Amino acid sequence: MSQFRQDPIVGRWVIVATERAAKPQEIVQQTRRESLQACPFCEGQEEETTAELLAVRPASTAADGPGWQVRVIPNKYPAVTSDGETARCGWGFQREVQGVGAHEVIVECPQHETNLARLPAAHVADVLRAYRDRFKHHKRDQRIAYALLFKNYGALAGASMEHCHSQILATPIVPELIGEELAGSWEFHQRNNRCVYCALVEEELDGGARVVVQTANYAVLCPFASRFPFEMWLVPLRHQEHFDDERDDDFAELAEVLTTVLGRLAAVLNDPAYNFYLHTSPLHAGATPHYHWHLEIFPRLAQLAGFEHGGGMFINPIPPEDAAALLRP
Length: 329
Prior knowledge:
Elements: E1 3-6, E2 13-16, E3 54-56, E4 70-74, E5 88-91, E6 94-97, E7 102-107, H1 121-139, E8 146-153, E9 165-171, H2 176-192, H3 196-207, E10 211-214, E11 218-221, E12 232-236, H4 251-269, E13 274-279, E14 294-299, H5 306-311, E15 314-316, H6 320-327
């Protein structure tokens, strides 16, 4: 029988409807494209991109040339731009803010690899450090309220380039979903004097049914009220509010966890398209004892239709307990 399940942080309801798992065309497959003969993200094609903002490369190599391992560049077709001020204006019901911010691409390897899970964990640790360093950079800009890191893997997840990459979009406005998480976690903290994410992870680890991976400092779980089949959250076990506070020594373990679960996703589901995004405290929020950074991963398996769009409630045909059991290494 189907169940209604409520997310304990934002209060969102989902329907776990196992009867729909066998619905024809419910599960969509990854669409493969031919690799580009002259991919602008590949080593040796640096002149085809914007000038690098940050690169992991030997000191003996020149900027915007070969020899790099990870490269951060401005998006050639940005959603926002770095020039201008964030003055707000409007009239009546209309509100407007200038499109100021930053839109960056993290090219995650020099070779034409498409899947982060196939890179060595030591290399992925360098990618994660580049993420952190860009968050630190954006924190110095008082115009920027929030930086959202996200990855689109595969055409069905919105990727326009095959080459392994992710993006950061920094904006003067805190995105609505982050605001909902901040509000929900603050209300829980007011009632219970503890972080809801810490409490949630503790409960999940005690039960174990929805835990995919647990290491000394991180856990990956399929949340109780999963919106999507095989949705996963990667959460640090210690209370950590800002991702940019992660220590250099932590990234080797974090990279192992991330490559493990992305590899399991590829193995179990035949390398599906997926998105992941990093939720962290707003850049200038200071101490937020009620909030906890985490990485949300979801494969693009189930198509959203009229009920989801019209009602704002998701229907998930795969119970998260079953998904976690299949994803465990």
